[in-house]
Amino acid sequence: MALYDIVIKGGTVIDGLRTPRYRADVAIKDGRIAQIGLVSASDGAEVVDASGKIVAPGVVDIHTHYDSQLFWDPWCTMSSWHGVTTVLIGNCGFGFAPCRPEDQDRTMLSLSRNEAVPVKTMRAGMPWDWVTYPEFLDSVERTPKGVNVMSLVPLAPLYTYVVGIEKAKAHRASDDELDQMCQLLLEGMEAGGCGWSSQIAGDLFNVQLDYDGSPMVTDMMTEREVTAFSRALRRIGRGTTQITGQLETAALIARESGRPIIWNALAPTGSVNQHGESQFPHLATIRRLDELNEQEGLRVFASAQIVRFQSEIVLENYNLMDIFPAWKDAGLGTLEEKIAKFADPERRPALRAAVDELGGGFGAAGYPLAEITVNWITSDARDALALKERYEGFTIGEIATREDKHLVDAMLDIAVAGDLNVGFGTTMIDMDPKAVREVASCAVALPGISDGGAHTKFVTTGRFATELLAHWVREHEIMSLEEAHWRLSAYPAMAVGLRDRGSIAEGRPADVIVYDPNTVDALPQERLFDYPAGEWRLVQKAVGYDRVIVNGKTTFVHGVCTAETPGKLLRHGTA
User: Which parts of the sequence belong to the Amidohydrolase domain (predicted)?
Assistant: First the structure.
């Protein structure tokens, strides 16, 4: 009988703690790392040849929206394809508990727009065998999982449950209602939640709106409400907060709670002035983060955007132009209503003006509309074959020139002809390596913002770990691999209160990845028709990962799923 379940032989260990890499064998038994050193291959029931490979801790993905997807996809792909072994759900204040049965559909409608999760998929794929947040965690625990799951307590469901969405938006919460919500927060924390989350947009640029185009209920949180939730966390004496909103709001929460906070988001916003000189506004944000942490003694972490954006735009459910009222209004309603609005010639001037205001750009990332390509047109469209022959593979700029149209008219005429079920593919928005180095190396930066489980028809930012290892470290050398794995695993684990994950050490849970540093990379985008109710999603798989191991069980071998589901619910940051 073998002494160990798995022996990883001859790899280069990067332990996630920023210590120098070293050659060693790693033995795994009963879900934990049993020995690091020289181990005989004959002692392993399974032997992994890691010669020339990196052996590193599994990635901790702290910004996901797998709250629904985990019920039909135990491995939370895309994340697990890219080396992730632990995910944090409940981000941005959005989630599904507590929730009364009569509020389920309204809650799913909200998530269908602000995080762009197909509503018919949620309706078909979620068990809804809970009302309270503790019952939700119980449901997650008994659901087979291919990754570990930890959860924040999102605030939007608390408002729905206690106050009601429309009442809360119109009148906010009374003192008694606010106290009830704080009690529910504490109940969620006692059940195993790791903190609370919220989107507090205020006057910020915001494309994550409710299904009717109004702000989310948390967007209008007052200082009174923010302070109350923060002080509730102080009373319990543990937990982390995650917010999307103003940095100064994050600072207020950190002061009032006395707890760490993860703020979204720090991004490389490099620009060039009229003299051709590079200017990096993100440096001012980094200075402010340094002040908050070093001078005020707060613990304010920053989720850092390091993924180059490339999207597929499908106007059937696209919401990333919602900053412009004309686009937001056209994108609301039933499919038939949207088609009529986008076809309406009286609406076109305002739609064109919005794109002109962006200098010919489109979407939150400002993709050059002229360079966007018609990737595919649904086969269900009228005259589909003719449309495909005329437009597929051409850019909007080429089509606009050929048909003597404004770029917006060229795009919308094709979209309407295809009943809005047309895929427009963008170019890759690259980023200045110097700016990315400054952002990713900021003292409190946590590279990520995968948004895994959200915006699944638009973006593939769940590849962030591979992007860091392959593009930014291997090709641009913005940091060492030791630094990268610390920021991908041990550092985010510490920030969210994970007690025993994120590093390789004897006795720790065996969440381990084995990969080739010379070949690891993200594959091109593709559509998968693997969601419940026949829905599709845009994904990017990976190459170069030999093994993904979760709690001592191999879940992926060279990108192929083993069907093992060893993931655990990490209540209070451990399991």
Answer: 46-555
Give the separation between CA 446 and CA 263, rounded to whole angstroms. 10
Task: State the pLDDT at residue 205.
Answer: 60
Residue 269 pLDDT exceeds 80: no
Residues 6+ apart with CB under 8 A from 270: 278, 279, 280, 282, 431, 432, 434, 435
Question: Cβ neighbours of residue 428 under 8 Å, at least 6 residues apart?
Answer: 308, 309, 310
**CA angle centred on 35, ends 29 and 40, rounded to 5°:** 90
> Pick from 483, 538, 544: which is nearest to 514 by CA?
544
Residue 473's closest CA among 223, 464, 374? 464
Domain edges within the chain: 312-425
Instruction: Report the distance separating Cα 298 and Cα 296, nearest Å.
Output: 6
For residue 211, is pLDDT > 80? yes
| Beta carbons within 10 angstroms of residue 232's beta carbon | 22
How many Å apart are CA 291 and CA 298, to the nearest integer?
9
- Cβ distance 134 to 183 under 8 Å? no
Residue 530 corresponds to which tokens in the numbers above? 């693997």
- DSSP structure class, residue 569: B
* Segment 322-344, tens digit of pLDDT: 889 999 999 999 999 999 999 99
pTM of the entire predicted model: 0.95
List the one residue out of 352, 329, 486, 332 whose CA is nearest residue 412: 352
E-strand stretches of 90-239: 148-151, 153-154, 195-200
Report cis status (omega within 30 of 0) of the bond before 524. Answer: no
Specify whether the CB–CB gap between 10 and 545 falls below 8 A. no
The contacts of residue 321 (CB under 8 Å, 6+ apart) are: 207, 327, 328, 331, 354, 362, 363, 364
- DSSP letters for 496-509: TT-SS-SS--TTSB
- State residue 271's pLDDT score: 41
